[in-house]
Amino acid sequence: MSKDCTIQDVFHRFYSSFESTHNISPAQRKAAYHIMNCKTGAFGVNVSVCEDCGCISVHYNSCRDRCCPMCQEFPKEKWVDARREEVLDAPYFHVVFTVPEELNPIIYSNQKFLYTALYHAASDTLSELAADNKYLGTDIGYICILHTWGSTMNFHPHIHAIVLGGGLDVKSHWKDKGKDFFLPIKMISKTFRGKYMAKLKQLWENDRLEFHGSAAPYKNYYTFKELLNTCYVKEWIPYCKKPFDGAESVIRYLGKYTHRIAISNYRIKDMTESTVTFSAKDYKNQGHWKEITLSGEEFIRRFLMHVPPKRFVRIRHYGLLASRNKKKKIALCRNILGCKKYISKLKDMDAPAIIRLLYNKDICKCSSCGGKIIPLPTEQHFIKPKPHTLC
Residue 148: in which H helix or E strand, if any? Predict the structure, then answer.
């Protein structure tokens, strides 16, 4: 029995047996390789020496994979800090777009197409309804983030949207409804359902969909048609949380969702020769935490389900927050609202300075005597990464 273990430990113990009995995509294989070799020396080693006491420090490079639990904190802090300059002192809302679970097998078999359809349907829903004079009549801004997991690492694709609660009308005037969300949830539900199902039908009619595993029965025309009818009749349930309490809370909140992965190391409670135990929220019991035990191979299977397709962009900006708009339009909104500009703390800082600011740790000083450390010549002491031929 092993406690205080990590996801890397789980992969070291169970991945080889899992690999021999399951089909693994190149993206999943690459993620597994990165997780198992992160900070082990496989991606290079940097060696430094203290000028005063001669103490030698060895630093193993990380893999920087977006699915690795050991590599998310630093990119998250930098990303969230960069967003500080785009945040306004205005209402923000958190809207979650979900699809019926009956669609999950087809979505998993066609991840790139149907994940993209999720973004398009959510974006079109928000922008179209916000532009309607009946609701707000403005161009708004929002960030969409794809998550594909539930608390138990089950497959549950959904979009988290951080929505600016106001926007600019055709005359470039600011409009909002204060702390009241400007769109009725039922209208969001109907519009999102219609747009996503339209995109799904279009892909089906153009023969762009594949049907593997549990999605195989939907190769049949009548079975797929029955699925569409079921989803059209079913009520889709988006969710809107209360507005954020000020711009600073928006900045802090973003970090909770942007660089999250299916499960973090702190949730791993125990590992035996054949099983892994982890904590998960039980939403049927008021969100209380409970422990779940899975076989090691099942744990690996669930984890790898959430590796996104190659080069798939998980964080997308729209409307006022889109790259082509935000420089001019956010500045205009800030002037109209008379709110202060939040300045990036980490902009133009190098990695040692960022670490010193965020974690109060000076990596340029010797941990033994406090003297200055210098890197040893790379041609003598840098170990090159192993060639990667897994994908």
Answer: strand 141-149
Residue 283 structure tokens? 């939403």
Q: Under a CB-based contact definition with an 8 Å cutoff, are residues 234 and 227 in contact?
A: no
pLDDT value at residue 382: 45
Residue 357 in 3-state DSSP?
helix
Work out whether the CA dihedral 258, 261, 263, 267 comes out positive or negative.
negative
This prediction's pTM = 0.90
* 8 A C-beta contact, residue 229 and residue 222: no
Cα–Cα nearest to 123, from 217, 202, 191, 222: 191
CA distance 320 to 318: 6
The CA–CA distances, whole Å, from 256 to 69, 79, 199, 383 equal: 14, 12, 30, 35
Q: Is 380 left (phi over 0), alpha (psi -120 to 50) or beta?
A: alpha
Instruction: For residue 90, count other CB atoms closer than 10 A to its CB.
Output: 22
CB 67 within 8 A of CB 307: yes
The string of pLDDT tens digits covering residues 170-209 is 999 999 988 888 999 999 999 999 999 999 999 999 999 9
